[in-house]
Structure formats: C-alpha cells, structure tokens
Amino acid sequence: MPEKSRERILRRISSALGDRRNLPSVPAPLQTPPLSREEKIEQLKTRMTAMRSEVHVVPKGDRDALWTDRLKTIVVEKGLKQMLYAPGTPVGDAVAAAWAAGDAGLPVLEPYDAPVETFKEALFSMDAGITATMGGIADTGALILWPDENEPRLMSLVPEVHIAVLDADRIYESFSEAMEKCVWADGMPTNALLISGPSKTADIELVLAFGVHGPKELVVLILT
Amino acid sequence: MRQYPPKPEKVYFFGTCLIDMAYPEAGMAAIHLIQREGVEVVFPHEQSCCGQPAYNSGFPEEARRVAEKQLEIFSKPYPIVVPSGSCAGMMRHHYPRLFAKDPGLSRVKAFSERIFELTEFLVHVLHIQLEDRGEPVTVTWHSSCHAAREMGVIEDSKSLIRQLGNVKLVTLENEHQCCGFGGTFAVKQPEISEAMVTDKIDDIRKTGAAEVLGGDCGCLMNITGAMSYRRIPITGRHIAEFIWERIHD
Amino acid sequence: MTETQFDFQANIRKALANRQLRSNLSFAMGSMTAKRKAIFSDAAAFEALRAQGNAIRRRALLQLPELLERLEKKCIENGMSVHWAETTDEANRIVLGILRDHHARRLVKGKSMVSEEMHLNRFLADHGVESLETDLGEFIIQLDGETPSHIIVPAIHKNKQEIARTFHEKIPNTPYTEAVEELNAIARKTLRRKFYEGEVGLSGVNMAVAETGTLCLVENEGNGRMCTTVPPVHIAVMGLEKVVEKLSDVPPLLRLLTGSATGQLITTYVNMISGPRKPDEKDGPREIHLILLDNGRSRILSDEQLRQTLQCIRCGTCLNHCPVYTRIGGHAYGFIYPGPIGEILTPQMEGLDKAGGIPTASTLCNACEEVCPVKIPIPDLIRRLRNESYDPNGSVPGHGFKRTFAEAAVWKAWALVNRHRGLNALVTKMAPVLSPILPRLGPLEAWTRGRIRPRFSQKSLHERVREKGIKDA
C-alpha cells in the first residue's frame, strides 16, 4: 500500500504545481566584517557563557600548564566520581595519559568502548563525559560535534556534566561558514550536533531551568 | 522610504464613510489644515467608501465595485489625502490586489501612488509648522494598526503632536496593539473585541492623559464608546481636530 | 474537544471568562514578544534574513515533488526507511506497524505537532501502546489529558501552581512543590527511566534536507536527542512541506526559527540525523523510519495564493503577537494549530464547513504578518478564506458554507449605496434619525454590550463641505 500512497501524493503535488514554475533566487545574506581569531574566541565565549556554559580558555601547547592540568582542577572542584571518555581519540588519549600520572581526587575514567545495549546501566550512572569537538560557531555561540564510532552520541547527552574540548583554530564565524569550509554537503555523518549550552527548559511559566533531560552543566575548554 | 512629491496646488480629499457619518468635524479640521498651507482642497461629492468593510468581510466583488467608483471619481492626477491610516492603506496597498487581474491595473496602481495618509502628507509634502495656542494638556496616542503596519506613518503623526509646545505626549504601554475594532470584527466577535478594548482603556488610564488621540475614527469610535460606557472621563479625538483647535485663530 | 462538537463562540466565552488563563497568557506573550524583539533588534539584518527565509521556503515548495523524491532517495541511501501517508490514519497505521514489527509496547515521544495532528497518542492507546510525551510542556499536558495550547510552549496556559498540583496528583510519591527547579527535577527523574526503557522513539522534523537526506531537529531540553538516540528504533513524522533543497538552507532558516520561536540565537541542541547507527558505531538507533504526511497539504499546494500557508516553519511567533490569541489562548481554536497560522491552516485542512468560523477571529491588525519570519501574508489569506466561506464557486473544501441570502443581500445593498450618491446621502441622513430608535438587535446589540452606540452626526461631512463652498472637481 505505501507504494500507492507515494505515487498518488507525488502525482497530486506535481499537478498542483503545474509546469510553469519561476523559482525565486535566494538573496545573499548581509555581509558582516570578518572577525579576528581573538574576536571569534571572545564572541564564542561571551555567547556560550550567556547560555550558562562554563568556558575556560587554556593554552594548547604549554608544557608547564597543560590543558589537562586545568581539566583536573575543574573535575576535582566539581567532585566528579566517574568520567566517560573516548579511548583512541586525541582528547581521550591525552586525558588517559594525564590521569595515568595520577593526582588525588580525580574521577575514575570509564571508556565508552561497548555498544550501548551492553553498557546502558553504567552509562546512565556517569556523572561526567568528555568529548572533542569538530569546531565552534562564534556568532551564535555553539559547539559542533560529529559523534562517531570512537566518540559515541550519548557521551554528550547522558552524563550530568559534559566537558567539551575545542581547538581555537576551528572556531568559525557562522554555521554557514563552518558548513562551507568543511564541505558538509559532500558527506554528512550519521549524527551531527550543535550544542550551545547545558540542557534547559522554560516550559513552566517561561522560567529558565537547567538540566532538564540532558547535561546539567556544559564545560568548554578552548585550547588556544 | 517613500519618495514624496513637491507641494501641489490642489489635492483631493477623501473623507471616509465613517467621518462622513459620525465625525465630520475631524474631516473639516483636516481640510482646514491643508488649506492653511495654501493648497486648494477638492472634495468630489460622489465619493463614498474605500470598500474595506466588504473586502475584509469576504466580499471582494462588492468591494471592487465600490472601489471602481472611487477610481472613477478621483480621476485627475492630484494627490489624494485620506484622514485614516486604514482607508489609506486599503486604497494604497489593497486596490492593486483587488484589481490584480484587471486590464486597468496600471491605472489602479497610478491611483494608489497618489494616496497619502493625512499626517504623512502634512509632514512630508506640506512641511507644516504648528504653533500651539492651547492650554497645557497631557495626551496619549493610539497607533492604529494599518497606520502603523500598512502606511508606516505613526512617527509622522506623533511628530505633529510634538510640535505643539503645550502638549505633553505620554506613550501607551502597548501602543501598537490593536484596540479590537477591526471593522466587522467588532460585531462578529464582540466578546474578544471587548476584551481587547478593555485592555486598551486600562493602558490609556495608566498614562494619566486627559485625552487620547488617534488617526483613525474606527479605533476612536471603539475606544471612546467603551470609555463612555464605563463613564471614564477621558475624551478621544482625531488628531486633525485636536491640532486644528489648538492652532487656528 | 472533539471536532464534531466544535463551538468556537462557546470556547471563546469560556476562555475569556477564565481570569487565570488571561493573566498567564498576557504575562507569557509579553515576555516572548520582548525576547524576540531583542534578538531581531537590527531591522535591516532581520529583513535581509527573512527575505532569504521566504525565498528558501518558496523555492522548496515549487520543487516539492523533485525534492521529496530526492530526499527519499538520499534517506534510503543513508540507510533509513521512508514511508508516505496520505492521511493521518494511514500515518498512524504505519507507526503502529513499525511498533508491532518490533513487538514494542512503549513509545517515547519528542515534541511533534504533526503527531498531534495525527492524534497519535489516542490512536496508540486504543491499540495498547503506551505513548509517552517527554518534552516537559507536553509531559505536563499529557498528565492532564490535554492538548497543546501553543505550538512552541504547549503548557503556556498553566501556571506553576496548576502544574504543581498535577505532578502531586498524577506522579506517584510526589510531594506538592511550586519551585520550578524542583518540578523540573521531578520530570527529569521520572522520564530518565522511560528513556532508558524506551523501545521506540518518535520525533517530528523541523526541516529535512533533500541534498543530503538529513533530518534536523531543534530543541533545548535534550529529550528529543534522547528519543532519537537511546531506543533502537527511531520514527520521524513530518509534514511533507518541511523539506528544503540544500544543506546551506539550514543556517538561515534555523536562525529565523529559534529567534522567532523563543528569542534565542540558537537552541541548546540542533540535532542533524543522516542515518541509523553504522555497524561499528556504539549507539544511535538501528533503524530510522521517516513518515511523510500529506493530510491535505497537496491540496493546499494547488492554489497559488493559499500555497503560502505551507511556507510556515512552525515558530509560533504569530501566536505570541496576536491580540486575539493572547486573549483566548490556544484551546479555544478547537483544533491543533491555534492563532493566526491556525486560522489559515485549520480551515484548509479540516474544511471551512467544520472550521470556517475561525477566520472571523482576526482584526486583520497585521501584527502576524509583520513578524512572520518567512513572510506569509496571513491577513490576506484570512481575507481569502473569509471570501471562500461565502463563495459557492470557491476551491477550499466546505467553501460557500456561510452564504446566506441575508448576508449576501446586505453587502449587495452596501455596494449599491456606496456607488450612488443619492442613496448614500439618504442613508447618511437617516442614520442619526434611525439610530436611537433602532432596536438593540443584531450587530448593534453586540456592540452596545460594552460600548455606547456611535452617535451619527446631524450634518454629514458632505453637507459641511458644500456649505463651505469647497469645490467638487
């Protein structure tokens, strides 16, 4: 039966439109002056902070002040117990190496290395998850995530705190720019996400409340 | 932005059916304001209604027939001044739609180009300067929907009030919200209309103004009718009448 | 609220009499309009953006058959299944079929207006499937057995006291609390378990990209991601007009959607789904089913003017700015889509004979048109539907249902009077004489319930002008 409906619907909409169709052209967006690297970092930070994200700007390659040291301070301060990470990814491996060096009070690292079906109970009890990002969007203040086999989708959704690591060189001015520069149209992943803050709702009297279904906190480490 | 013509020698005046029947003083005041600037006013006696009541009620054919009559009467190339944002909006923006499939569409478009809302015309074409001779008074302003959203002339109207030295203009909290008139809406949906006008009146009372001014007699009829019913001692008048009273000898 | 017993005027009276509702709505709409205004404070930028949005949507509709076929092809290439439904009943049966294939008895749902249009929950309940709303607002109204009163904020008609009472009464072992944070925590705790156990997840679609076979979902809570990621099966239901041509169409539409809907630059989550879990991936649904629903849309498409209705991206901002919606709320409209968009959409979907009263509830104040992010000329379409209500030769189902000899005669007479000066003068002359002695009947009766009747002038403008010697030509 579905075949029949399909044909009928397509026939109806084709005849509804007829043959003479003048397609309007899409006007170009207004041009805005380009932003410097620093301006993009600043804009992203301002916008995401306004949406209740916790943003830390950390030098990337400083041997005396590794970003993972800052990460340790943050997770210890938050008193996190277990942290989900993605082994085999640059961020996951850096975290694992830093954790191997030891330190008091660090959350236990839990790898997301099995299908969700066998891992669900552990997953739903995690209090943090750390992921990399594909990039950031300055004008709206959002992170781009392309979850994959190493870094699954639920890492950024189920734990109470989501920690995201962003390379400052991959902050784009706009979503459009990110799409163009990374040629998204050539091949989309099974799931692409923009994340602009912790989960929130305003469904009760428009009062903004955080952490309704997804993470209650979003921590962003921008590596410069 | 609309391009305005230089000051003409003559203009047509379209009085609107509501002013004709219920608010002729507003119409006369508007005519006096134009004449004061040395422009001759022509008032074709065959004129009637812009057609909006039928148009908005679902009777475009009847609206078209009445509109045709106006097109016929206001035939010379003078500007047509209309003391109502709503009627002006109808004649300027909706006539071309009413006659979209008509062979005479270009004539209709030329007619629509000649339509000016009164305060817009006073400000941009006549560059009128007002000298206030009245007593100090506090007023508020109701923006009618079509003056605001079809004609875009609210700032023109308010700039005229601001020219009057003894008049204090207090802004309504929801200045741009509909008063609930909506032509036949007020009779088809009287309960919603009343809820809307009640809120409008509450806003007006909060300003402490002695008078509410407007550029559309439909809204004013609705608002003052509801205020009188509640015995609220705030008057309401068309802006032309208010200005004329304060400036003429 | 069964459609067959729809009595718009009774609904309106009931809503207007509810002071709590009036106050909840007035507060909420004021807040939402202010937030939107702040986000689109640059008028030139907004105009440029909505010109883009309008062109994108019009282009998509004009290429609808090609885009739908392309979307279907791409989605199938991406590993999804695509189903076509002509009616809501057919769509419901497709959903049920998928559930039965998986022996599933529990469905977790993200927010979807199309699923409301389908009355999916009721249908599934009748077939022994538990369908649970997980968006907080939808969850609240589902507990109360209600339907959404707003496209974006479904429980906007309720205040926190009412919600506190609902939670206390309907969720076991829940103490009464009015603290919004605590109410959220209760919902989080209750629903987490449901996501965990969910066998099938269902969502709507904000837009679908034909170029890449991508379904875009926009949300703040994360429940939409839960429903589309945790359960092994994801069903997406979509009105067939929601397709867009290219991926590059998404950013401008997204900006218009979130800015108009909630005054946000972007929502917390933008979820772009282009396929089920790959063999080596560890999570995500193993199956994705996209259901394309017609339900009258193809008919709406056939009229060049009315087609503009389908440009809608369901942002709900026309509701927030509508002086009528703000007074009566969404339930009064009697069908799923309320406010200005509902005024034009509902009668076209349901037929004017069933829902033709709704277009009378507009003052044509143009507030909706002014804010519409894709420039739908809603007031023009309301006028058109009013016309269709009287037009025996119209094209919308149920057209001409209102045509009575009396109403038609009144307007014929009106046109006659306004084309002949002599008649017009006579009527103008009679008005002040007749008005005070006319019985308080019909239109005047309604008018004078809250207002004094207009006073007609003893001397018309025509007469005064003549007295002043103002020239006729």
From TrEMBL, chain A:
LUD domain residues: 41-223
Domain of life: Bacteria
Listed SUPFAM superfamilies: NagB/RpiA/CoA transferase-like (SSF100950)
Gene3D superfamilies tied to this protein: NagB/RpiA/CoA transferase-like
Pfam families with a match to the protein in the record: LUD_dom (PF02589)
Matching InterPro entries: FTHF_cligase-like_sf, LUD_dom, NagB/RpiA_transferase-like
Descriptive protein name: Lactate utilization protein B/C
Organism: Desulfococcus multivorans DSM 2059
Organism ancestry: Bacteria, Pseudomonadati, Thermodesulfobacteriota, Desulfobacteria, Desulfobacterales
TrEMBL record, chain B:
GO molecular function, one term: oxidoreductase activity
Cysteine-rich domain sequence ranges: 11-92, 139-223
InterPro entries assigned to the protein according to its UniProt record, in alphabetical order: Cys_rich_dom (IPR004017)
Gene Ontology CC: cytosol
Coiled coil: none
Family matches, as Pfam families: CCG
Identification of the protein by name: Cysteine-rich domain-containing protein
Protein source organism: Desulfococcus multivorans DSM 2059
From TrEMBL, chain C:
GO biological process: lactate metabolic process
InterPro entries registered for this protein in UniProt: 4Fe4S_Fe-S-bd, 4Fe4S_Fe_S_CS, FTHF_cligase-like_sf, Helical_ferredxn, LUD_dom, LutB/LldF, LutB_C, NagB/RpiA_transferase-like
Keyword Electron transport: yes
GO molecular function, one term: 4 iron, 4 sulfur cluster binding
Residues annotated as domain 4Fe-4S ferredoxin-type: 310-376
UniProt domain Lactate utilization protein B C-terminal: residue ranges: 384-469
Domain (LUD): residue spans on this chain: 68-293
Keyword Transport listed: yes
Keyword annotations of the record: 4Fe-4S, Electron transport, Iron, Iron-sulfur, Metal-binding, Repeat, Transport
Name of this protein: Iron-sulfur cluster binding protein
Organism: Desulfococcus multivorans DSM 2059
Source species taxonomy: Bacteria, Pseudomonadati, Thermodesulfobacteriota, Desulfobacteria, Desulfobacterales
